[in-house]
Amino acid sequence: MTKHPTSEQLEITQGLCQSPAKISPKYFYDTNGSALFEEITRLQAYYPTRTEAAIMARHAQEIAGSIGANRMLIELGAGNCQKAKVLCELINPTHFVAVDISEAFLQEAVAAMRLAFPHIRIEAIASDLTAEVVLPASLPAQGRLVFYPGSSIGNFDPPHALALLSRMRGLLQDDGAMLIGVDLVKNQTVLNAAYDDDAGVTAAFNLNILNHVNRLIGSNFDTAQWLHRAFFNPEQLRIEMHLQAKTDLLVRWTGGTRRFDAGERIHTENSYKYRIEDFVALLTRAGFSQTQVWTDDQDWFAVVLAKP
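The structure corresponding to this sequence follows.
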């Protein structure tokens, strides 16, 4: 019997056959990739995590008051759930639903959350945010708060960001809300350093996607043959991450091959940076009519509460 490729395998191989080749950033997050990203968030050069945390701490009571009580908290891209832990302590939700693509990493994080918050009903959902997130029917439809921290919205180009925000709006009734972190346009030196750290952690994170792809499609990528490249594109207002072939090489996978010339790249990630007014306009198009914005003193990052 012929074994047909999965939709995941088809997505990856079709991306590799494009010119230029690409791999979706969602494939960064196997167990090792998730751990490497957590290491990135602790780097001095990587400002988004600590800046967002400082905004949340500085404006905690105002944010909590604007969110209101008796919420069901839904964190998208939950990772290690540490940001949700802080928010749970602040607003004491009735439920917490953690959604992430990396199931093994998610289950470990949720187990820790259940120990920390035994009085909160906690659920874990392994799901790809590029598709519709389906919540269990047993969960209440009213009073939902979607939480999407860390400026992950920047990984989506504007049309796909709008589609994702619209799907988030679709999870909410009229009494719902969304709390989202947004990285803002700033000095290019700061941006470039955040995505190409001297310690090489971001490089390891980027290269690890090839190991994950090898397992998923049976390919023979060798990370030693590739270089990490990251830079700000001022025309698109985005950081771009690529993997660049060190030499001419041939990559094989089950059912296909691709030749790469020396210097040829695989595009692995974009991270769009927003002006506040542009992001508020995007929220409006997605169906959110009320917004509150909190920023740091340098206007490097914004935390936005949006309501229908």
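The chain has a mean pLDDT of 95.
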